Amino acid sequence: MNNNTTRFSLCAALIAIGLTLAGLTIGWGISNVKSTDRFAIVKGLAERTVNANQAIWKISFSYSSDTLDDLYSGVAKAQDTVVKFLSNKGFPKENIQLEPVSITDNDSNSYSQNSKAKRFKASVSVVLTTGKVQDVVQSAQKTSDLVQSGVVINNSNVRYLYTNLNAIKPKMLDQATFNAEKAAETFAKNSHSHLNGIRRATQGLFSIKNADGSYGDSDPVKKIRVVSTIEYFLK
Predict the structure, then answer these.
(1) Which of 187, 201, 160 lies closest to 51 in space, CA to CA?
(2) Residue 161 CA to chain centroid, in angstroms?
(3) Would you say residue 18 has pLDDT above 70?
(4) What pLDDT is stored for residue 38 in this prediction?
(5) Are 180 and 232 part of one and the same domain?
(6) Which of 64, 70, 110, 231 is the most exposed place for a label (fewest CB within 10 A)?
(7) Do 125 and 173 share a domain, yes or no?
């Protein structure tokens, strides 16, 4: 065998080895791409029922008179009556706020057709902000005492709030993630696969609703809910 033949055989062998390695590399790449294309999208829910920790109670009332002097004294007396009512229920005066008084002159109101109405009408509100939620729940049922004292109540509205969301967020997110993983494991089992890490995760918004699931702040019992969306690789 001459040198040229030897060189040709060596080159042919190197080319064959190179093609074999290239084929293995390409094959691994295709396999890897396919494995990264396989993933499952699942949602994990976490719910918790909590009691409101803050109450905002707004008592709105009115007083009417034909003279401003009597109007002012009547408003002051009604305000004192409401503040005393709240104080007697155990709420500190520093938690009670008197809102600005709004006065309507019926004589200047061209749309007023009630000739028997007193000339001036004052609309007044007293607002209580407190963490004594259960005391507010009980006291709000006693507003008839104010009516018996001569206070003309137009509206008594309580907003119940939960302000400690940051304290329970981590555990709720853990629970949502745990539930998502359980759902993904079930999906993987049914598809004859197994989980191979998280591809992407999205935290949903926390929602705070009334205990019956309705929106608003009328219920002292709250339901907090969060849904996390997580994508898992499958192998």
Answers:
(1) 160
(2) 10
(3) no
(4) 85
(5) yes
(6) 110
(7) no
Phi, psi of 29 (to 5 degrees): -65, -45
Please give the Cα distance from 189 to 193 (Å, whole number).
Answer: 6
pLDDT in tens, 167-184: 999 999 999 999 999 999
Whether residue 68 is found in the same domain as residue 83: yes
Of residues 101, 95, 91, the one with CA closest to residue 122: 101
Which neighbouring-strand residues pair with 164? Answer: none
pTM listed for this prediction = 0.76
The string of DSSP letters for 117-163 reads S-SEEEEEEEEEEES-HHHHHHHGGGTHHHHHTT-EEEEEEEEEE--
Which residue among 114, 140, 161 closes a domain? 161
∠ CA(210), CA(211), CA(216), 5° rounding?
10
Owner of token pair 């503040």: 83
Distance, in Å, from the CA atom of 165 to the CA atom of 169, rounded to the nearest integer, reads 6
